Amino acid sequence: MIKSLLQRWLPQGRTGVIAVPYVWLLFFFVLPFFFVLKISFAEPDISQPPYTPLVKQEDNKTTVVLDTSKYKTVFGEVDAFFEKSWSEAKEESQYLVAYWNAIKLAFFTMVLTLLIGYPIAYNIARSNEATRNTLLMLVMIPFWTSFLLRVYAWIGILKNNGVINNILLATGMINEPIEMLYTPGSVLLGMVYNYLPFMILPLYAHLVKLDSRLFEAAADLGAKPWTTFFQITLPLSKAGIIAGCMMVFIPAVGEYVIPALLGGGDVVFIGNKLMDDFGANLDWPQASAVAVIMLVLLGGPIVWFHRIEQKQQEAE
Amino acid sequence: MAVTPNDVAAGDSKQQFLQIKGVTKKFGDFYAVDDVNLVIPKNEIFALLGSSGSGKSTLLRMLAGMETPTEGRIILDGEDITDQSSYHRPTNMMFQSYALFPHMTVEQNVAFGLKQDKVPKDEIIERVGKLLDLVQMRKYAKRKPHQLSGGQQQRVALARSLAKRPKLLLLDEPLGALDKKLRVQTQFELVNVIETVGVTCIMVTHDQEEAMTMASRIAIMSEGKLEQVGGPREIYEFPNSRFTAEFIGSTNIFEGRLSVDEPDHIVIDSADLGRGIYVDHGITGPKGMTVWYSIRPEDITLCRQKPDSQYNWAEGKVHDIAYLGSHSVYHVQLTSGRIVIANVPTSHWGSEKPATWGDEVVVKWSDGANGWVPGSVLTK
Amino acid sequence: MSRMPLSNRIFMGLGFFFLYAPILSLVIYSFNESRLVTVWGGFSLKWYEVLINDADLLHAAGLSFKIAFMSATLAVVLGTIAGFVLARFGSFRGHTLFAGLTTAPMVMPEVIVGLSMLLLFVALQTGMGCSAEGGPQGLWARLGCWAFGERGMITIWIGHTTLCMAYVAVLVQSRLKELNRSLEDAAMDLGCHPFKVFFVITIPVISQALVSGWLLSFTISLDDYVLTAFLSGPGSTTMPQWIFSSIRLGLTPEINALATIVIVVVSVFVVISNRLMLSAQAKRDKAMQAAFAQGGSAH
Q1: Which residues of C touch B152 (CB under 8 A)?
Q2: pTM of structure
Q3: ipTM exceeding 0.90?
Q4: Alpha helices, DSSP H, located in C89-200
């Protein structure tokens, strides 16, 4: 009797199993986005929590107040680009500039990690099994080491009295230390360094699956090495390239730590803008609006990425 | 669990041990198995033979309970098992490439099913020991599957699927993972073990030699349907369709029109042959209908002189020869352009010089003057 | 397979130099006597001594290890189920969304995930009645206060688990995909309930993926700064937060010492586990060859 009641109420085995991770993800990953959306329409307030409620009750009247000023702060000064001088417009549209800087940074990081990572992944995948394991391990070790510490290492190398400048000064190649740290270049360098394994691993995973007889067949049919590469290897590793690029580009747009530690204050990226609004300015609604816009921007690439992943898996 | 009333007489229950009634499996719009009806008596070894995608594996998985039929019932020993899940069913399967649990020893693999049934420990030890003796694997009891050769793995898999004394044993491509030489030896071993245990057995295979060696009856499957069911000899010598005739062994098929239809013989006019084909039994059908005549290569002989018979021969030229030791396979091109295959025993030529490439020859087969006429007439 | 051409070798050499030079410089300067991080003042172990006497750091490290252990464990449980569902359950309603959600935390910028989770926790805290005047009333409110009131271990734990389970799910899913499904079918055919099959067949067979999933989750959690920055309260400083603020305050050779310890531990660990895996593989190959040789002669 109790058993049959329980069976009625408890989900069936299969559904129950699906429900456990599904409910977790819906509750802790999807639901929060709705709160971000909600808070982005609130106003900051010196209270606990530090924002105004959207639903106000006055004299038994319930009103919903949607404050769009935070979005206006981001987009409001678009007109300036048409009316004022470029530098003035940039000054006034800090958020738009920060988005643009972040996308540029993410894009260059993606391109550079691909250019450096592809040959590495390719050479690892094409070497014999024992070497392959060792090389893969060598790629993995820095990845398992603390990310913050790897960023920190670059400070010691790039700063004015750092390793590179010390070597150059000692050898007499320069007289004055070169300004390298706290520049856009040092941020890009740190990004490429830290995101490189995220590019290499998906590329490797796809490249290693390619049957080496394909290359032999191409060579046997008279293709030169470069022809083989462009006609066989590259098309067949397309899915890996896309996976690697997305693994780098999407998180890189919102990167905070690397610009915060390696960047100077003059070039601002959107991740840092968000963190400043959240932390220093205690303007949670503004941070939320920034996050909502970032999510909309990245929505396209994320969905596209999942489509391709899905297709790839169906093909297998 | 629903038990259908056992309306079968006691004597028939052995004859109708397994009944497959109108079983159909659809995947979307695709019929993987299409209205299959089959009755299998107790202790028979039955083979489902077909090429890949014919639906034989889906049918087997439905018998094992790993797929649910879209329609139809499966009745085993008087009990409707259609809706029983695979872990409740009194059937066990030997999987293609064996699916031995890699983290368990031979012994643990064989004991696995008995442990699920909570059989007392002493009994498990005893039964597993006997099974390992039966398949001659006792000395490997403590080994892990990856430490065994393919043939040894096959025997462990067999022992594991027999451990629970299933009412129905299912074999999915039982010897497909073995190389050819080992396969031939193992066929007989496997049949011996199954017969010793005395279990009803259905196997799925794409290897006709395997099916013909091991099974007492064979069903040919194609596109989800049973094309023909019968003993190995029956389906080889009396195929009921062009599909079966061409699927089992090799054959020559001549298309023609029914020109004479007597109760004791018929004649088929064949354009390829350029003359009539005489068959010593009647069929039912209107005169002039299109029929096919299938004749096996070993029933055709070659000679150099034209026979004086009216039927069942044609002139041609040797187009190709494959020498296979005991016999040679001749491809003879008839004047109509049609190629006829004939198996000619090496002894056939005696002291005469064997026919060679380009030789003019005559292909012929018995026209009933000496009694029996080979080949069969097909209407589909 | 042929040897790599010289040009490729040079490229690989440069690539690995790029990966390792910064790490090497960290290690070298950790033994520097001088306070000025990059001026060599002679060999010394004094920064290691400073390190192990830094109570703040030790406290932060303790908290980080605790959270990493809890996160990795829960992430393996949830991630394994998610990966199993994706690899074995075929299609169900909401499958596409589920597949997307499982991997999304891997790529989603952490600032977004962190902020949104924080807002959820704040809403939960209020919603469960923790911020009511006069302190929490009733069990529900107490639970709300305990979990979300003073943000710290529990909120970080939930955040890290959500992030790490994505990695575990991907690992488990790909391992299951290459694994023959008939193993599970065979166990069921022998009378094992599907629920039990998961524990006696699936889990043992994919155990290697589970171990690597756990280790990966552990390091990700141990290393995470951004999520933690959103989800931690004033009383809960983790090791990455300590490192981050130390770096912002200026270079301290203490961090070099910490980095060296981390690098040594990780390297030793990775090398050993790799060796173990390789030798297990070699042993298996040898056993298989022996079996085939024997099987061949027996017939």
Answers
A1: 291, 295
A2: 0.83
A3: no
A4: 95-107, 110-127, 138-144, 153-178, 182-189, 194-197
